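Continuing the batch. This is chain 6 of the set; chains 1 through 5 are on the previous pages. Same settings as before, nothing changed between runs. Recording input and output for traceability.
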Amino acid sequence: MSAAGGPLAGVRVVELASLAPAPFGCMVLADLGADVVRVDRPGGPGAGRLAAPSGGPLQRGRRVTALDLKSPAGVADLLRLVERADVLVEAYRPGVAERLGLGPDVCRDRNPRLVYARMTGWGQDGPLADRAGHDIDYIALAGALEPLGRAGERPHAPLNLIGDFAGGGMLLAVGVLAALLERERSGLGQVVDAAMVDGSALLTSFLHGLLGTGLWAAPRGRNLLDGGAPFYDTYATADGGFMAVGALEPAFYGELLAGLGLGEEDLPPQYDPSGWDELRRRFTERFAERTRDEWTAVFADRDACVTPVLAPGEAHRHPHNAARRTFVEVDGEVQPAPAPRFDRTPTSPPVPERDVSPVEEILTTWR
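Output for chain 6:
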């Protein structure tokens, strides 16, 4: 029972219930049309510390079944699903799946074409492989946390977006897609080792390029893209809102100054760091004179790279997001829409997770 549309229609995924990163990766696969079956513990998604929460965006597009993977019967039923699946996703610590009797070798014997995707924080090997951790730990060790924060302040984690979702779940989805593509040539599946520390390090590639050329040499909060430059920062408005400024290039910077009513001849040069404190003071004073909506109107027709800072709960109402349907409503809840978009195999609107189904019922649709 595949999703009605999307480039992955017909791809069958078995997801062993877990938290945040792997469910996000499986959400992406489901959004793209894959038929994802989540395997919960008996008693529902709230049973046991490794079980996933029920409902919400990360769980959409799933069918659900429940198996006791600590019992021979539960493992046997899982392996029956594996025999007909294209992908299995698990997010246990290294070695747990093997001890349960559902590791890669066992699954490969049942289905040589299976893509076996493993989501962990530290990876399947290495000195920390068996250690616990969370997003903040992975990005810290990857070198992705230290550059984040204001000058003179301690590093600040940006929610759990980098490790869990960008470096974790999204990397998992990319790995699965690459393995499925390679399978078309070889006819064989393979193990995908998606580690959040690896993915977080990968996300710093551009930063490493700047370091290599000496363009990121100042301490945290004093560089071009970390809030050090006053023309790449956020500013408070009269009503307690904020505006985001990304006027890096001279043309956009000129439009910024015009919108603010400032003359370039009366200000320090844009790219001279010695004058950045003065520029920030002038920008701060000017933005504080009007509300966020008033500044939004000022810059509406100016190509100045200036936008209002929207809260998650209001982003869907912005005219651009509304026009593109960047957000959709699923079961009465506003959620981000599937992305990217496809012209020939468009994705279907996301749906809530289904009720729990017996394995036999799922197998009848996976013939």
